[in-house]
């Protein structure tokens, strides 16, 4: 009986203290590319890159889904209704190098500025993915790609998921910048 109480006490302490100890912890040497642990059930990923091109040009390349497989190693295609609440299918290469299809409803959509979704994607793990373009001085564009891993599974898979997101988003952002600035 005492052993059960000790185990239960340890579990309760873990769930109560971990969010406090880990809240806001940043993981990455890049100040604009980071994973923030808000609690054991909520982590966010934030990446950004400055592209030397106007927003319209960046949007044009970003939403040219038929050409995306020629340059992106992760996001391969988005098909469907590109509008607020539109149903889309996202083809994405996962960490096993397998193309997976995810069905999403666009929660965010502002023509020429942003699009994204917030849906469950893996064992009680919710995804809140946003692509956003901001006009900057000098005809430049800040491209922001952010995401979140929320839910019970974040306790077990949050680190793996957000580390993979961070790495693949940074690579996607750099390649997008290179392609846009070449055109």
Describe the protein in words:
It contains three helices and nine strands; from the N terminus they run H-E-E-E-H-E-E-E-E-E-E-H. It is an alpha+beta fold and 183 residues long. The protein has one domain (24-182): Alpha-D-Glucose-1,6-Bisphosphate, Chain A, domain 4. Strands 1-2-3-9-8-7-6-5-4 form a nine-stranded antiparallel sheet. Helix 2 crosses helix 3. The longest helix is centred in the C-terminal third of the chain and has 29 residues, at 154-182. The radius of gyration is 19 Å and the shape is globular. The model is unreliable at 11-28 (pLDDT under 50).
Chain-averaged pLDDT: 83
Number of domains: 1
The CATH topology is Alpha-D-Glucose-1,6-Bisphosphate, Chain A, domain 4
Weakly predicted, low-confidence segments:
11-28
Number of strands: 9
Approximate strand percentage: 35-45%
| Structural classification | alpha+beta
Notable characteristics:
42% strand; 9 strands; alpha+beta; 183 residues; Alpha-D-Glucose-1,6-Bisphosphate, Chain A, domain 4; 3 helices; globular; nine-stranded antiparallel beta sheet
């Amino acid at each position: 009986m005492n052993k059960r109480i000790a185990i239960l006490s340890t579990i309760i302490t873990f769930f109560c203290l971990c969010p406090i100890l880990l809240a806001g912890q940043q993981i990455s040497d890049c100040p604009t590319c980071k994973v923030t642990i808000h609690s054991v059930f909520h982590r966010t990923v934030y990446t950004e890159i400055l592209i030397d091109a106007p927003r319209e040009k960046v949007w044009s390349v970003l939403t040219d889904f038929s050409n995306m497989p020629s340059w992106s190693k992760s996001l391969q295609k988005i098909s469907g209704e590109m509008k607020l609440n539109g149903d889309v299918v996202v083809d994405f290469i996962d960490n096993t190098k397998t193309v997976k299809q995810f069905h999403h409803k666009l929660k965010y959509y502002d023509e020429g500025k942003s699009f994204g979704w917030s849906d469950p994607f893996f064992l009680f793990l919710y995804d809140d993915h946003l692509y956003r373009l901001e006009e900057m001085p000098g005809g430049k564009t800040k491209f922001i790609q952010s995401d979140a891993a929320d839910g019970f599974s974040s306790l077990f898979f949050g680190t793996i998921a957000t580390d993979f997101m961070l790495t693949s988003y940074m690579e996607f952002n750099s390649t997008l910048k290179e392609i846009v600035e070449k055109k």
